[in-house]
């Protein structure tokens, strides 16, 4: 096993990073700042941490188990990570990271700085990072992750080496899920297909019965919309589903964080929090509330993506494309809806769903954005039996 073993569908990118991390390589493979781009679910952060583990290891480009465990736990002394549960990364967070980047590595070959979701920096914050990238210490390496190069300001793009990830094939994701999560091949293939090769989502669908049930209900609700009142009711229920999904993701993590924080403060389980420590717990709770808001919006986006996959399948059937459908488990229902509706109306629904995603990302009230998209879907059903 190497640090690259659990990555899939990114052989070209792995080759680049492996060559850069090889201590025996004295060529132009290594640089002090990197940008990993790719669509959601392509494994940007996974590859970033694999590269970090390889750079921090003294045993070569394939890493070693001890260093890999420390990187996975984010406890390696020469690794600094910036990830945020907020909509944007604050300037204070970047200033702190830049300050840490000035120190020499203590045990590894490099000091590695990872910024997940680097696209969440506004221009003023990006300029703070820019100064660090212009004059980095000799043994500091920056690894930024973002959906695309266009999400960063041009001056930062000019100072990083960009590596673009591709969307893994369904069979590649299925093989990874089957091997890593020890699930049935058919379950892994269906999860990878319905997740549209999103590795994290495929893992959830393959290993979490509740996640699968929520997705099935989402599609059933979308297919059942015949009129405006039903669209409004469906939107309300989808909001509930997104909320349940967000709670499932955050609830256990919140409890673990609170328990860990109290333990680090010396507060026993069940013991009242001393007044002097309450402000720290309040800060933690505020961060968790912000994360819950983001998780809800992420859940709504996943719901919209799933519904878009449904109408994409319907459109393929209507056009007689012969291409495989994402939701083949309900193929007969897809055929039924496709035969009773018009491709132009299906395209209008897809457009409305895309607009809803943009509106929610821009902080429009999610319920209103969702209702507007689903009401458009009622037109697609005017001629459905």
Overview of the molecule:
With 385 residues, the chain is of the alpha/beta class. It folds into 3 domains: 11-164, P-loop containing nucleotide triphosphate hydrolases (Rossmann fold, 3-Layer(aba) Sandwich); 170-207; 228-380, Up-down Bundle (Zinc Finger, Delta Prime, domain 3), CATH 1.20.272. 59% of the residues lie in helices and 6% in strands. The radius of gyration is 23 Å and the shape is globular. The chain starts with 10 loop residues before the first helix and ends in a 5-residue tail after the last helix. 39% of the residues are buried. The model has no long low-confidence stretch (mean pLDDT 88). One of its GO terms (biological process) is DNA-templated DNA replication. It comes from Agreia pratensis. Pfam families: DNA_pol3_delta2.
Under CATH, the topology of the largest domain can be stated as Rossmann fold
Low-confidence stretches: none
- Sheet/helix structural class: alpha/beta
Multimeric status of the protein:
single chain
For the report, how would you describe the main beta sheet? Answer: 5 strands, parallel
Summarize the amount of helix as a percent range: 55-70%
CATH architecture of the largest domain: 3-Layer(aba) Sandwich
So what's the overall shape?
globular
Kindly state the mean pLDDT as a whole number?
88
**Number of distinct beta strands:** 5
Count of helical regions:
15
Radius of gyration: 23 Å
What count of structural domains?
A: 3
Task: Please indicate the percent range of residues in DSSP E strands (runs of 2 or more).
Answer: 5-15%
Which CATH C-level class of the largest domain is it? Alpha Beta
Distance between the termini: 55 Å
Q: Superfamily at the CATH H level of the largest domain?
A: P-loop containing nucleotide triphosphate hydrolases
Q: How are the strands of the largest sheet arranged?
A: 2-3-4-1-5
Order of SSEs: HEHHEHEHEHEHHHHHHHHH
